[in-house]
Design brief:
Layout: H1 8-22, H2 29-36, H3 50-76, H4 80-92, H5 97-108, H6 112-133, H7 140-156, H8 169-180, H9 185-188
Helix pairs in contact: 1-2, 1-3, 1-5, 3-4, 3-5, 3-6, 4-6, 5-6, 6-7
């Protein structure tokens, strides 16, 4: 029986972990092979070069952070406000996806192709927010403003190091979501 080949998805996952941990410079074939405990020869059975791996990594990130998230929230159903919260939790509170998303955002600052992919993902996320917020808000300007604020909060709160005057971060985030989603304090608790 021949040796088992390292699956293509293992190379992609190792690349995404390296990206999240050290940016695009950390996505090196030799380093990935070492992390997988294999030789780099198997890599070329799946990918022509590093650029092909990077493209496959972006495909995987985009599929997992949009298509799969949308599938989960649609499958589980529920109120639009719950769907928004669930989508945010699946993406921006996920210990695996969040670091990858932030690394892709950093990468997009230096690569127009990646910036275009990020724009496509963010546009799908904003479309979901607009649709869900539009179920309880009718003013198009307010829908857009609430969507933008919700998205900025989901990303930006990971970079903020401020204290909250005796309140916990989770208390402030919860109250912020109540305001953005037009939930009363009594129904949110």
């Amino acid at each position: 029986m021949g040796a088992l080949r390292t699956p293509r998805d293992a190379w992609i996952e190792a690349g995404l972990r390296a990206l999240a941990d050290g940016g695009t410079d950390a996505v090196r074939i030799e380093a990935l092979a070492k992390s997988l405990g294999v030789t780099k020869g198997g890599f070329y059975g799946y990918f022509a070069d590093r650029d092909a791996l990077l493209e496959a990594m972006l495909d995987s990130w985009e599929r997992e952070s949009t298509d799969e998230v949308l599938d989960v929230i649609e499958h589980e159903g529920d109120d639009p406000k719950v769907k928004i919260t669930r989508a945010g939790m699946l993406t921006f509170s996920n210990d695996r996806l969040l670091p990858i998303d932030l690394a892709v955002r950093d990468w997009a600052r230096r690569d127009e192709h990646v910036a275009e992919r990020l724009r496509r993902v963010d546009n799908r996320r904003m479309a979901l927010l607009r649709e869900m917020i539009g179920t309880f808000c009718t003013d198009p300007d307010e829908i857009e403003a609430r969507s933008l604020l919700a998205f900025c909060l989901a990303i930006g709160e990971h970079f903020l190091a401020a204290d909250h005057g005796g309140r916990s971060r989770s208390q402030v985030l919860s109250r912020t979501a109540d305001i953005l989603l037009n939930r009363s304090e009594a129904s949110a608790t």
